[in-house]
Structures are given as C-alpha cells and as structure tokens.
Amino acid sequence: MTDIRLATRSDVPQILAYVRELAEFEREPDAVVATEALLENALFEECSAEALMAEVDSAPVGFALFFHNFSTWEGKKGIYLEDLYVTPSARGQGVGTALLSHLAGIALDRECARFEWAVLDWNQPAIDVYRKIGAVGMDEWRIQRLSGDALKKLAGR
Predict the structure, then answer these.
(1) Which domain holds residue 52?
(2) Catalytic residue positions?
(3) What is the pLDDT of residues 45-87, one digit of tens each?
(4) What is the Cα–Cα distance from 21 to 11, expressed in whole angstroms?
(5) How many C-beta atoms lie closer than 10 Å to residue 43's C-beta?
(6) From CA 119, how far away is CA 151, in angstroms rounded?
(7) What residues contact residue 55 under an 8 Å CB cut-off, 6+ apart?
(8) 89-95 contact pairs (CB < 8 A, 24+)
C-alpha cells in the first residue's frame, strides 16, 4: 500500500534527488540548477509550491510537486502539477495514480476548478496512465516559455 503525505523540510534532499532523476529520465540531466536551499526556500519559506511524498513500507518511492494557478474563465484557482516522479522499482504498482488521486482530493478540498499538468509527447506510458484516469489532452494548446537571455531581453535588462 502506498502512503502519501505532505513533504517536510527533512524531505528536501530526497526531493532534489528525485528532481535530478526525473531530469535524467526526461533526457535533460544537466538542466537542473536547483539546490536544496532553493527548494527549501520555495517550499517552506515563500510557500510558492508544495510537495507530496509517496512511501511504501515507510521508504520513499516518489513525489509530486505542485502549486496553484488561476482560471479567469472559472474565476477559481487550480492546481498545476509541476513534477511527478516514481522510482523505477515502484512503477506499475499504482504509486503514480495514488499521488494523482491525492492531488485530485486536494483540488476538490480547496475548491479548485482544474488540475493540470504537462507530459512529454514521447512518454507514452505516462500518457496511457493519464488517459486511464480520465485526463484529456489539451492538444490545441502550446506551452510558451521565456527564460534566460530572452527573458532578460524582453524585460529590458
């Protein structure tokens, strides 16, 4: 059975390790610049994000990091799942679904209009899980991103 709980400060090293493993899986192993200090600040000082830990037999097997967004059309906040990661040895055992289910409950408890996330188009096993639980692909929407020099240039800095 999978136990899901809110992350604590003591989970930050494990969260960062999972972020690095996820980046490796997503073929971007050198992209992670986050540090334990940055994550601890974001999660527990600024409270700009929250994290859940998944455990089996009291051992960590995954995490989900999320934050609130807002829908002007609905006039309500939503939950955006930034990262969901399950260790390879725990995949296929319902851990990811347990994390998603717990997040869906949080969304309902907080009266959120939506629960959204992105998935890489080549991650078919994840897409299959998402379709199985009833998630709908928003194929007509394209994520846009400004970062680094482009962000500075637009800001005039």
Answers:
(1) 2-155
(2) 130
(3) 999 999 999 999 999 999 999 999 999 999 999 999 999 999 9
(4) 15
(5) 22
(6) 24
(7) 2, 3, 4, 5, 61
(8) 89/61, 90/54, 90/56, 90/61, 90/62, 91/125, 93/2, 93/56, 94/2, 95/2, 95/54, 95/56, 95/61, 95/62
The tens digit of pLDDT for each residue in 20-53 reads: 999 999 999 999 999 999 999 999 999 999 999 9
Residue 32, domain CATH: 3.40.630.30
Q: Residue 32, CB half-sphere, CA atoms under 13 Å: how many?
A: 21
Domain count, the chain: 1
pLDDT of residue 113: 97
Among 49, 42, 62, smallest CA distance to 2 is for 62
Q: Report whether 82 contacts 76 (CB < 8 A).
A: no
Average pLDDT over residues 87-112: 97
What pLDDT does 37 receive? 98
pLDDT at position 57: 95
Cα separation, 128 vs 149, whole angstroms: 36
Distance CA 146, CA 49 (A): 20
